[in-house]
Design goal:
The chain has eight helices and 15 strands. By secondary structure, it is α/β, with parallel strands linked by helices. Helix 7 links the parallel strand 13 and strand 14. Helix 4 crosses helix 5. It starts with 8 loop residues before the first strand and ends in a 5-residue tail after the last helix. The mean pLDDT is 93.
Amino acid sequence: MQADKARNALLIDLDGVIYQSEHLLDGALETLEWIGRKKIPHLYVTNTTSRSCAALLDKFQTLGFSATLKDLVTPAVAAAQWLQSRQLHKVALFVPEVTQADFGDIESVSLDREATVDAVVIGDLGEAWDYRLLNRAFRFLMQDPQPALIALGMTRYWRDQNGLRLDVAPFIKALEHAASCEALVLGKPAAAFFESSLAKLQCDAEQAFMIGDDIVGDIDAAQNCGIRGIQVRTGKFREADLDGPIKPYALLDSFADLPSWWRQAVDRTP
């Protein structure tokens, strides 16, 4: 017998929603405890590629809450599954060294030598990006036959303690233009990323809520899949985000406001 689908469920972004860089946001821990008491099905969906899944779980513990691997949906895990399903075994991984652990037994070629590859995987390398490294990815993509270009998300930018920082999307766009190719996106805002999360939760789109700080990558992308988007005014959010055509289903000052909003909008109790 097929399991009943969840009536309501949450997809929750991490950085900018629950924590900012290495600091838990005010009220976030209490909200997570409330979600646990309410037994609301939920997943943490993140485009973070600067940490492995194991490192993310360690960070959760340090910040005071816990989760398991089954509670995480990350682009690196999705990419590893995609590569294995298509038997693409030789890959150029432009991701932080710690994240390479999430690719399991897939062979990662040295980025310092010429080699034929099946795919080029691009994640967020932060300040490690330079012309030499970007050009190395370009040269891999100019092989014949051309390898697949895989983007671990298409987040444009994010915020840390020093301000706004470029994320993976600008580098993907440069490579697409230079190598005349189109990246396969395995992360937000790709519809497949949200659809796989819904399948994992056994939840229909119209019964799910996406909580995020990115009006494009979180809210618009989710709502294009039929998921209701809850925008928080933390993380990378700017008031100017609300001046555009994207209108979130709900707007909260922070993740800490979710329980009171939920009682009014979902439980419909005083």
